[in-house]
Amino acid sequence: MQNLKALNSKEKKVIYKQLKEQFGHDEKIDAIMLMSPKGKIYLLSNDYANLDITNLRINNKAMYFAKQEKDGLRMSIEGSQFITATKNVYEVNKQEAFDWMQGKDVPKEGENSYALLKYKNDILGCGMLRENNIRNMVAKERRLHSVKE
């Protein structure tokens, strides 16, 4: 894993403030927060220090949570699902959900900001809302080539 820095309580407060302002999430996250030199934020269980990992093959020790951008936090798919968002969450219909999962943008009206997409009870991910369009930022390798009901 890359060179990650554990965030101290002051640095975590900045993240918590952004989560509250952007998404209405008002809870502390019970995990160690790590940040890469490129601003990617990862979460690692507090219990990790107590694990004996000598005989385990571990790909990633932490979950990619968000990226610190100049205009706010851009949540990962898992990070979007991890928080309890009450703000900047946009409901999509079935067709819009299918389009999103295939990497297409979704038209929605709202203020310019990072936005979470929700279909029924499922959070689908985070995109950038600009000019009444939520720009899909899902990595190409995570997009679905076809969607079946």
Can you give a write-up of this model?
By secondary structure, the protein is α+β, with helices and mostly antiparallel strands. The chain folds into two domains: about 80 residues, Nuclear Transport Factor 2, Chain: A (Roll), CATH 3.10.450.720; about 60 residues, Nuclear Transport Factor 2, Chain: A. The chain has three helices and nine strands; from the N terminus they run E-H-E-E-E-E-H-E-H-E-E-E. The strands form two sheets. The protein has a five-stranded antiparallel beta sheet. The longest helix is centred in the first third of the chain and has 15 residues. It is globular, with a radius of gyration of 16 Å. The mean pLDDT is about 90.
Helix-strand topology string: EHEEEEHEHEEE
Strand order of the largest sheet: 1-2-3-4-5
* CATH topology annotation of the largest domain: Nuclear Transport Factor 2, Chain: A
Q: What percentage of the residues does DSSP assign to strands (E)? A: 25-35%
Structural class call reads: alpha+beta
N/C terminus separation:
37 Å
Number of helices: 3
How many structural domains? 2
Helicity range: 10-25%
Number of strands: 9
CATH class of the largest domain, named: Alpha Beta
Based on CA atoms alone, the radius of gyration comes out at: 16 Å
- Morphology: globular
Name of the CATH architecture of the largest domain:
Roll
Mean pLDDT: 90
- Contiguous low-pLDDT stretches (5 residues minimum) are none
The largest sheet, given as strand count, sense and whether it forms a barrel, is: 5 strands, antiparallel
